[in-house]
Every structure is written in C-alpha cells, then in structure tokens.
Amino acid sequence: MIDNYFDSETYSKIDFTKTKIKKGEYDNCTFTNCNFENVHASNIQFVECEFIDCNFSNTILKDTAFKNVQFVNCKMIGVKFNECDSFLLQMTFKDCQLNFSSFYQLKIQKTQFVNCNLQEVDFTETNLSSCYFDNCNLKNTIFDRTNLEKSNFITSKNFSIDPEVNKLKGAKFCRDNVVGLLQKYQIVVE
Question: How far apart are CA 19 and CA 81, in angstroms?
Fold first, then answer.
C-alpha cells in the first residue's frame, strides 16, 4: 500500500535534511538542486523521475525503487544502490559523481553512464551487459565476476578489468585504453 502519490510535481531547492521527504510514489516528478545527503529515503518509489543538480551522498536507499530514473549532474558519493528495490530498476547517469558507490549484484543492463566519475565503485557480480560508459573515469573501480558483455568502454579511462574473471564477450574498447585489460600481467605497453 502506497502512503502518498505525487504526479508530475516539481521540487526545487529543497533540503531534505531539514524537511523530511514524504514516503510514497513519485511519478514523473522533477527534483532540482535538492539535498538528500545522509537522508533515509527508504521505501520510496521514483517512477520516470529526473534528478538534476542534487546531492545524494551517503543517502540510505533501502528498498527504494528507481524505475526509469535519470540523474543529471548529481553528487552521489557512497550510495549503496545494491540496497535498492531491484524490481524494474532502471537508471541513467549523466555528469554524476558516483565515487565509492556500490552496485553489488544488481542487474542493470543497458545503463548509461555519461561523463561520470566512477572511482572506487563496486560492480562485483553486477550484470552490466550492454552498458555504455561514455567518457567515464573508472579508477580503482571493482569489476569482479561482472558481466560486461557488449558494454562500451571506448571513451572511458583508468579501468582495470581482469578478462579471466569477468565476462567480456562483445565488449568494446579502443587501442588507447585496452591496457586496462592487461594490468594484472604487469606488461609494459608503450
């Protein structure tokens, strides 16, 4: 049972650390310049919503649903997406800071990460097949038993992916960044 239902509403410059976010379903809503930092935003449903210039750092998202949600220019450091409701989970990230976040064991195929900073993100056992990493910094990001089949890394950098423990069939890389597949072998490529 849903407590509240919000449809096509716009939320601007709301500090949810001071004004508690109402539990319920937010459908086709837009959040701009809102602060969710360290907020308990659990058990909320966001359907076809857009978050622009929001701060989600260390936000608790236990059983929170993100269904066809876009994040644009958001700060999302240390977010445990793996605690979200995985049913119909679908997100897009553009110009976001996602450092130290976790997507552990999620099935987020076809997700787009565009111009994102993904340093030290945990993608362990995540299904990232057919994902698009466009101009992303993946320094110290963990790919362990991750499905990366048909994913695109052509314009991304600083990744280290072990081909022996990750699924890479059909994944795309460019000559400049393919060295990220060889780091474990300590080969010198000039």
Answer: 23
Per-block mean pLDDT, blocks of 10 residues, the chain (190 long): 84 96 96 97 96 97 97 98 96 98 98 98 98 98 98 96 96 86 72
Tokens at residue 163, please?
A: 């081909």
Return the SS3 of 167.
Answer: strand
Q: What is the pTM of this model?
A: 0.93
Sheet of 45-47, strand order: 5-7, 25-27, 45-47, 65-67
Tokens of 109: 């195929």
Alpha carbon distances (Å) from 177 to 95, 97, 109, 150? 21, 21, 22, 16
Nearest to 83 by CA among 37, 43, 116, 118: 43
